[in-house]
Structures are given as C-alpha cells and as structure tokens.
C-alpha cells in the first residue's frame, strides 16, 4: 500500500512539475511576444536624432551641443509641413549633404578639423528619458551625426513625433507635443512611454527593459 501511495504521489508531483514547466514556458513566450510587438511598434513610429561627440572632454561636449543647435535649427525650418515619420525620413535623406555641411561648418568655426559622418539607419538605443517621457531600450530609426572619432557621450532627441524642438530643461514635455505623440502611437505604446505612476505600466516597462537588456548583451 505504501508503495502504491508513493507511486501515486510521485506521479502527481511529476505531472505538476511538467504543468509548471509548460506554464512557465507559455508565460515566457508570451512576454517575449509582447516585448517584440511593443518594441517594433514604437520603433516603427519614432524617428530620432543622435549626435555623438568626438570625446568626453568639455570642449568636445560643448562642440557637440553647438552642432546639435545648428542641425535642429535647420531641421525645424525644413520640416514644418511634415506629418508622418516617412515624411521626416524622406526629408532627412534628401538633405543629408546639407546636414553634413552644417556640422562641418560649426566644427571649423570653432577651430577644429574633425571629420563628420552623417547617416540614417536603425540603431540600438538604451533606455532614454526626455523630460517626463521615457523610451525603452530598442532599435530605432535615427539620423546619426558622428563627430571625429565619435567616442564621447551622445545627445539624442525625437525628430518624429517632434520632441526635438521642446525645451526639455523644465523636465516636462508640453501637452501639445504629447497630443502629437498620441496621434502617432496607439494607447498601449503611449502609456508605456508616458505613464510613470501606474504599477501595471511600470511592470510592462521593466519587462521590456529586461528582455531588451538580454538582447543587447547578446549582441555585444
């Protein structure tokens, strides 16, 4: 009788263990699917500007900001009528040589002779906050400007939806800019980047961070 009970108990725990493994696998796959879907949707909705300094020296960092200011001034001027990410990317592609010329001129005017590389591509970005808006780590399309050896700290903003032209020193993105973002992101995506209070959204953001950090580590 004891042997029978022992066998039954063993069978029960074996089945329980199998069910637990299958359930954990289901949760893991579901989480990966969710992270991939949200990351791709965000990536497909956002176009970023990325300026990388020659080095972390004070002089090179200051030069980076001067290049940024002139590039943004030009971009703001030519992108007034853009209403979609595709429009902005097309415009940026058509004016790559102008962006390069502007950056080079700023560098020369400030007494440096660094080379400049300007390109549009899909790049890895770690988690970044812009005022009270946070973007999870993911691959995003971006206009990248590399100054000199591009070994210094970088500066970034979102060209579409247009957050680059917002004064971020206040730490709050204006409601007008948020409305533009709402129009170009679905409710889930907008909540992920803007809701810093909800525990549910915080968990989802952390979930994205966790799986994306593993992806970045794997690619290094």
C-alpha termini separation = 58 Å
* Overall pLDDT metric: 77
Total domain count: 1
- Overall shape: it is elongated
* Structural class category: alpha+beta
The Cα radius of gyration reads 23 Å
Amount of beta strand: 15-25%
Commentary on this structure:
The structure is a single chain. With 220 residues, this protein is α+β, with helices and mostly antiparallel strands. The chain has one domain. It is built from 7 helices and 6 strands. Helix 2 runs antiparallel to helix 4. The chain starts with a helix and ends with a helix. 28% of the residues are buried.
What's the layout of helices and strands?
Elements: H1 2-45, E1 47-52, H2 58-78, H3 85-94, H4 96-109, E2 116-125, E3 128-130, E4 133-135, E5 138-147, E6 154-160, H5 175-184, H6 187-194, H7 199-219
Parallel strand pairs: 1-5
Antiparallel strand pairs: 1-6, 2-5, 3-4
Helix pairs in contact: 1-7, 2-4
């Amino acid at each position: 009788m004891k042997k029978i009970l022992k066998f039954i108990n063993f069978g029960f725990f074996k089945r329980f263990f199998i069910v637990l493994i299958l359930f954990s696998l289901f949760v893991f796959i579901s989480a990966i699917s969710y992270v991939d879907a949200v990351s791709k949707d965000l990536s497909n909705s956002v176009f970023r500007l990325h300026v990388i300094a020659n080095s972390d020296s004070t002089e090179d960092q200051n030069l980076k900001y001067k290049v940024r200011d002139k590039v943004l001034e030009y971009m703001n001027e030519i992108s007034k009528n853009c209403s979609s990410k595709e429009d902005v990317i097309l415009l940026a592609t058509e004016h790559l040589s102008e962006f390069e010329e502007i950056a080079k001129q700023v560098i020369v005017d400030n007494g440096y002779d660094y080379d400049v590389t300007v390109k549009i591509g899909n790049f890895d970005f770690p988690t970044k906050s812009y005022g009270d808006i946070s973007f999870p780590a993911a691959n995003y399309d971006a206009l990248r400007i590399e100054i000199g050896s591009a070994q210094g700290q970088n500066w970034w903003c979102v060209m579409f939806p247009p957050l680059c032209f917002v004064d971020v020193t206040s730490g709050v993105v204006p409601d007008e800019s948020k409305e533009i973002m709402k129009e170009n992101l679905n409710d889930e995506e907008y909540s992920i980047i803007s809701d810093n209070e909800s525990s549910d959204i915080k968990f989802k953001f952390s979930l994205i961070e966790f799986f994306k950090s593993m992806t970045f580590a794997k690619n290094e």
